[in-house]
Amino acid sequence: MKIGKVPTEILKEVIFSNIQHRRSEVLVRPSIGEDCAVVDFEEYVLVMSTDPITGAGKDIGSLAVHISCNDIASNGVAPLGIMLTILAPPNTTKKELALVMEEANRAAASVDVEIIGGHTEITDAVNRMVISSTAIGKQLKKEMTVSSGAQVGDIVLMTKHAGLEGTAIIAGDLEDRLLGKISKETLQRAQDFGKDISVVKEGVLAGRVGVTSMHDVTEGGILGALWEMAEASNLGIKIEADKIPIREETKEICHHLSIDPLRLISSGVMAMTVVPSKLALLMKTLRAEGILVTQIGTIEVGERVLLKENIREELRPPDVDELYKVI
Question: Which of 53, 225, 235, 273 has a 20 to 30 A CA-CA distance from 211?
Fold first, then answer.
């Protein structure tokens, strides 16, 4: 199979079809586009999510924390704890392990989450370090936000810029290859995008306003995430590609490597839907905290459509992320 997330149809056929036993306490189960599991604890719910870091070589301690915490935030709640499983190859040094944990500690402190456990192992089953993280959050049941809650007529928005995480990874891991073709200053600015990949703040704020759905944008980029939101709610969607904000550094790097920034891994971006009556409040709330938010489409009945320079095309499901074409 291709590198990256397993395709949607295989997930349905092979993975989801073999998850058959049910417990009544589980309120939200695995499905396309759903970021978290939710477990009932009467007045409260436990929100859980897990993710691996496999596509990056640098800053993986920080990425491991932010990626799973972002998932928790997509339910409109701040994460409170995270567990890390580190699988490292035999040539790993004590210094390299320490660096990863120092990165993870700083990232955890930045979003007020505690590293509450995990597992660390040296194994020849991997040829480079792999980290899997599991984050948890606690939320009042009545305040739950899920990816599948979009409604016809909702406004679709996104925070920040498409391709943030992928740009930072490429600029860091491929710096030597890109130098001479792209200026060192541009690459440094692109690497700094990695400092902006948390969506915890906007997730919590949007949850307080009362959005209908949220989905943090990871593999497959912003277009993949928007398709997944529509799929989760079993609805159509219309997206205006020309309104999607992209940083100039991302455009330059993607142009040089012939990859699509709209299908590039984009942690740091939160996609969300909101009823029109709450649109102004949501945008005011996010902008007051210095968070860029852009209106990019609507939830509709029927087709999933992408408009590019007034040309109408199908919004396709996510395929192999553009990152894996160059890393």
Answer: 53
